[in-house]
Amino acid sequence: MSDAADTWTVEARNGVFANREFPFTERDFKKIATMVYEDAGISLPDVKAPLVYSRLVKRLRALGVENFKRYCALVEGNRGVGERHQMIDAITTNVTRFFREPHHFEHLKTKVLPQLVADVRRGGRLRMWSAGCSSGEEAYSLALMVLSLMPEAPQHDVRILATDISRNMLEKGRAGIYNEASIVPVSRQMRADWFKRERKPDGTKVWHVGEELRALVAFRELNLMDEWPMRQAYQIIFCRNVTIYFEEDVQVQIFNRLAAKLAPEGHLYIGHSERVAQCDRRLLLDGNTIYRLARGEDQ
User: Fold this and answer.
1) What integer pLDDT is reported at residue 9 of this predicted model?
2) How many domains does the chain divide into?
3) Is residue 199 in some structural domain?
4) What per-residue confidence (pLDDT) applies to 245?
5) Which of 31, 34, 160, 268 is placed for a possible disulfide with 128 were both Cys, Cβ 3.0 to 4.6 Å?
6) Which of the listed residues 91, 111, 137 is the one where a domain comes to its end?
7) Burial (Cβ within 10 Å: 0-12, 13-18, ≥19) of residue 233
8) Cα–Cα distance between 97 and 114 in angstroms, integer?
């Protein structure tokens, strides 16, 4: 690409950032898009250039880097591994809340968990996975569903794995501290049973995840594009609104790998804008964006 061609800018392509703070060329954007795709499988078409600029300017300010050319050189180098994580963190959208898409949790509580809880009480085990857990609300929502049917769950073999590519989000999940607005979808009874409220010095009310709730959830860093170290099968997997950022062939790979991680008759829950297509034929639709690993006679 010639220097002349490299004079492309965000505002020239998109009509925004007329008074940009940092020079940002087409070459810069392509380099960043390539790195994000290689590392996280996230596709960034040209229309995402304004988003990339707006998400990364804070990183440039924090590092004291004067333009995106130097920033790209930093994250491409061996010394930029840590910043590369920060870059993906900044670009990744982390939208979540307790009991998001509530029909999934209703289906889980009424159609799936009763039998699994009964099995656990007879000495079995329950394994659940929140893949793309963000700041932890989804994983804790799963735990709350279990506790609503089985308050003694921490004394049994019940575990929920919560994974995400974002280290910042994982730290928030481990901390388990949520503001008053975040906790609104959680019933008063659940708050009383499984959370602790605290008033900060400035008067702000926050809610801490209680010991029993925390005991069920383990947070781990995981890039879905990498190898998955887990050897066990899961009766329940939530992977919602994660694959929408991937190209179709990558989506197929991810869904097939998730299907391979399901226990017999295990359930996979995906986001309302996602669809399982061209994937493992053992996955049967069991509800709105809910899939079940079929038994042999179902296939």
Assistant:
1) 54
2) 2
3) no
4) 79
5) 160
6) 91
7) middle
8) 24
